[in-house]
Request: fold
Amino acid sequence: MSDSKSFAHEMLREIYEQPAALRRTLGLYLEGGGLRREVAERLAGWENPAGEVLIAASGSSRHAGLAGEILLEDLCGLAVDVEYASEYSCRGGSDARRPSVIVISQSGETSDTLAALREVSQKGEKTLAITNVDLSTMALEAGVSMPLGAGVEKAIPATKSFTCQLAVLFLLALYEARREGRMDAAELEANIARLQELPGAIEEQLDGWREQMAALAHKYNSANTFLFLGRGIHYAIAREGALKLKEASYVHAEGYPAGELKHGPNALVSDRVPLVVLATVDRALDASVVRYEKTLQLLVEMKTQGAKVIALANAGDRDVAELVTDCVLVQPASEYLLPIAEVIPLQLFAYFMAIERGVDVDRPRNLSKAVVER
Reply:
């Protein structure tokens, strides 16, 4: 890995800190090869009796919540809704379902998310906070706190806090799936092993991603807009990749489910509007293979159309590489852990696009680290 003295900005330093941040976060919830008993006891009784969950968050944290929705539904069989905290806190009315509520916030002080937490707490609903500050207001006011081990994040664009949020949501899904009897001991052990291997795999890939994304940022620095596409859990990462690009480099970008491209956005695709397509796959999961095959078909159509496409694909995937303009490789992983790895090249792309455009990447205009009331 590159020496820390080579980091010209905090954002790049924090991107490189992600393996260590993930290891610290895992250490809060795992012991040896298993789940910490005291965490399981803390989570006991949190879940809504009907298995209904509401996730309220904003910005990058909401994108983590979108990934969490898939994790909790697929692995635990829960029914999950994800709300913009800024909308939920001023909707009014009542929710007769009384779901358990997860709030996600890097700072634990985000005003809209805190308002949502307080509203549901007053109604007696069970609450859980995922924050990067274990003594934050949300962590203290929620019924259960699941802190991150990301450490202080100085750059305004969230990087290591986001990947740690994904890791904690995956861990929450493991705890709940085990408690509900939806995951046997062998499967749990296998998932924990994969999770513990991930920081090392990311560490091995960082320098290669850094070099490639710097080159791609230079190549595409004249683009007006990017459309980021993903299916399933990867849609959340398409949204996050687009947000990172907007806030770090001031380049317009939008994230869509890949299947929605032809329902309007395809009219925008041109030489000045490239696509960024998440085309990774977990060969061990049938649903992932189905999504991948549909993405391949989309790439065939985009090649015929003459679109410029940057794709993220599994290392060794020649099918994707032959259909796109540029291919960024990610080591294979399980479907539910791939997002933690694949978002990192997109963070680097946003960083280097900012550098190309002379943006103060650590302090983008009009933005603050925590959106709080003044």
